[in-house]
Amino acid sequence: xxxxxxxxxxxxxxxxxxxxxxxxxxxxxxxxxxxxxxxxxxxxxxxxxxxxxxxxxxxxxxxxxxxxxxxxxxxxxxxxxxxxxxxxxxxxxxxxxxxxxxxxxxxxxxxxxxxxxxxxxxxxxxxxxxxxxxxxxxxxxxxxxxxxxxxxxxxxxxxxxxxxxxxxxxxxxxxxxxxxxxxxxxxxxxxxxxxxxxxxxxxxxxxxxxxxxxxxxxxxxxxxxxxxxxxxxxxxxxxxxxxxxxxxxxxxxxxxxxxxxxxxxxxxxxxxxxxxxxxxx
Length: 281
Hints:
By secondary structure, this protein is an alpha/beta fold.
């Protein structure tokens, strides 16, 4: 695998961090690093249709204790968009290339939704690289591909995500939160609407074709599974299945829908940091 790195300076508002471009087989991946240089590394991985800024509410808390690595998945944000479809293996190897570019032998992983799917692949196929694992609001398999095929067809027909944003955001956040916190919802809706159609569809196909069920028993890293009580996209039953297949895994249920770190930012940070502290080396 061909990999090149280039440093681009400090992320806005974070003078102790930097931006890095990792070129993986011709695809530039946008990476932002912040937090104490000698701290353990926590890599965050985003939901489908978002960029690294979906974690903004957790940065202050996480970066106090960790060297924080956030990145835009291929086809999203400021990263490149090679032709799809993509696979979980491809996306997992992207994450490993970022870690290699940073010189990281091991790191902690916190992935939400699609980020959790990639985390399962990493922990099963590169167990020596993952120290502790957080799988949030995620699923290991969709038995009926028609759901994703219908979404792909609707997006392709519309030519963009803006026309479908309200429907998708209704899955991301509870009605109560959408009504009470429009300023928190708006940036996520804007991220979704700005996502390039080809990149979104390529990632939809990776989710549609994913089957992580049989690899879950290979995961040995201490694992926290987070579910949202109001999550219709990846319901509690999906989280319970994942927890049941990973030895020693913990399950935390938050009063939130799918994008739980935005709907319950404080409780989410506390759950993740508490788990990492309990399982410190």
